[in-house]
């Protein structure tokens, strides 16, 4: 059975994602449920990015584990409130939200990532080398049907 986590930047957007789950017929995580992760820190620079990343990784691992302690392939979905794909770089300096999301997606390729709001495009000079972000496969409505494979990290 799939397990759904909420990863949001505020209580308000976490509540909105919880309401989306209710519309889909699922139970929304309560405010004390470990599957509801709210990242409210806006501190930037220095080692804060590493500390934020480490904290988020531990919280996602703890919340995503199945009954047997494993992270099952395609059985965990993380609903993220928003992402700016132009800032979603795992190699960029800083500890911003989009930077952290880029690192988390690479850390957990077995998790399906679903984004409530997707903004930003790669710079025009980079568009020739990079495929477009698969918005349809990672939007909220994509949660209504199960994909055969996850195109976010698809090598083809």
Reading the helices and strands in chain order gives: EHEHEHE
Fraction in helix: 25-40%
Radius of gyration over all CA atoms, rounded: 15 Å
What structural class do helix, strand and pairing data support?
A: alpha/beta
Strand element count: 4
Please, what is the average pLDDT? 78
Low-confidence stretches: none
- Global geometry: globular
| Discrete helix count | 3
Please give the order of strands in the largest beta sheet. 2-1-3-4
Strand content: 15-25%
Main beta sheet: 4 strands, parallel
Q: Could you tell me how far the N terminus lies from the C terminus, measured between alpha carbons in angstroms?
A: 28 Å
How would you explain this protein's 3D organization?
It is a single chain. The two termini are 28 Å apart. With 156 residues, the chain is of the alpha/beta class. It contains three helices and four strands.
Present the secondary structure layout.
Layout: E1 3-8, H1 11-23, E2 36-38, H2 48-64, E3 76-84, H3 97-107, E4 112-119
């Amino acid at each position: 059975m799939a397990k759904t986590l909420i990863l949001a930047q505020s209580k308000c957007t976490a509540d909105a994602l919880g309401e989306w789950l209710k519309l889909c017929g699922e139970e929304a995580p309560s405010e004390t449920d470990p599957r509801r992760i709210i990242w409210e820190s806006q501190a930037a620079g220095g080692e804060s990015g590493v500390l934020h990343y480490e904290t988020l990784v531990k919280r996602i691992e703890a919340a995503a584990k199945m009954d047997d302690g494993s992270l099952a392939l395609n059985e965990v979905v993380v609903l993220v409130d928003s992402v700016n794909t132009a800032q979603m770089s795992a190699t960029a300096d800083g500890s911003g939200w989009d930077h952290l999301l880029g690192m988390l997606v690479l850390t957990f390729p077995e998790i399906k990532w679903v984004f409530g709001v997707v903004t930003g495009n790669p710079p025009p000079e980079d568009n020739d080398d990079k495929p477009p972000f698969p918005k349809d496969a990672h939007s909220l409505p994509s949660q209504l049907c199960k994909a055969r494979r996850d195109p976010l990290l698809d090598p083809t």
